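sorry for the late reply, my laptop died twice this morning and i had to redo everyting from scratch. anyway the thing you sent over, i finally got around to it. pasting the sequence first so we're on the same page, its 502 residues, then the predicted structure underneath. double check i copied it right bc i was rushing
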Amino acid sequence: MNEQAKSSFSGWRSYMWPIHGYELKTIIPLFVMLFCVCFNYTILRNLKDALVVTAKSSGAEVIPFIKVWALLPAAIVVTILFTTFSNHFKRRTVFYSTITGFLFFFAIFGFLIYPHRESLHLHAFADWLETILPAGCKGLIAMVRNWTLTCFYVIAELWGSMALTVLVWGFVNEITKIQEASRFYSVLGIGANAAAIAGSLLSVLLSTPEEGGPLPLDASWEQTFSRLIIFVLISGGILLAAFHWIQAHVVHTSPSLLQKEKQKQAEKQKQAEKPKKLSFKESLIYIANSKYLLCIAALVVSYNLVIGLVEIIWKASLKDVYPEPGAYNTYINSVNVIQGIISTTTSLLMAGIIGRLGWTRTALLTPIILLITATLFFVCLLTPHSIAPAFASLVGMTPIALVIFFGSLQNCVSKAAKYSLFDATTEMSFIPLSSEHKFKGKAAIGGIGSRLGKSGSSCIHTGLLFLFTSFTASAPYVAAILLVVIILWITAVISLGKQFKT
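ok and here's the structure:
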């Protein structure tokens, strides 16, 4: 935050609400947009895990196989299509079309495909695969067996990268000045975290199994699932309405934003006169030649790699305690409520934190937090007969409960750090870039960078599962890889911080 912005507000307001009255017409619809997209992401993220982990003949082992063999190819294809589409149509057309496409899929899946999933699943083929493939391929077989759930997992995950990261945050970056960023992003972070709390609380309320109720537990869960999909569709409609409002009342009435729009249209027209447009492959090469964009990509890949390495092992332990989808979804969302409260509190202080610590030290907080919490998790996991039992008896918990607790703690604070610290600092780093670097670079990093991190962790897990057949046996190697990644992440933050300051 610059000195002029600081002096405009009292001490408490510089932390809690550093917004001028004339900025409300911009910040409120942006707040609504970010709230809606994160609300949906919270519901979808936990639904997809509950569906694939608790499905027939499945477990947490299916997640790395989905990320490698289904999610990564889908992310590459979608990003290529998105880049091509963006080269031919206006930003608002791309926004409307992409969000509507996602919502259409969720509606079809929730009300047509999911109720008839058992008749669509490939159980006979999967049973045959079990007779010819090794035990380490259990996750791959489950992915094929429950292919409709795999599709839902992929599209729900793409909502996070395309709708949240590329479309909504990309639009925020486009209309936000760098002088406003530290103030605006702290407030928008509150919206993202409040959405996580709201989505998780709603899921907990709807996912709690009604034992002794009029409906069987399976039927109750299907009813819960359809209700959650309805909320996703309503929230998506509000997102589109907020985007339409800000286009009509902010973008088209602001001289500076209109000038930006005219410049972009002139650039597109100029490019259209060239015999060859910049392809997606050329965009990646262009990004690879930029040290600044490479550092941003390193941050995104590292975060998702670290989260993926720890989260899958935690979910494997969680499945043993909560085998039913309703109970599993309830626990996951309960963790998200706590995560939302922590990250909302942090977001309230973000403007002051960035203003006082600076970009680099604020960005370093996320890898440091993940290093500490992941260490606690792996110490309990890897010492089942020494440290973990002693510590578990001290706090009155069983060893498996202690592992789940520290896994939940790691998941909770890492997501809180993402919404309040990581997202704000990463998005700020895009603002000084040129329009071409910002748009195509963000599309590639948001669409593929996060996927590379998540798929990279999945490749590591699938390779280790082939060798050791279980997460327990492969955990020491995962911990070692995790340490190396975090060290590289910290190095990239320091390098990017120097360039951002310049």
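DSSP finds 20 helices and no strands in the chain.
thats about all i looked at so far, will dig more tmrw
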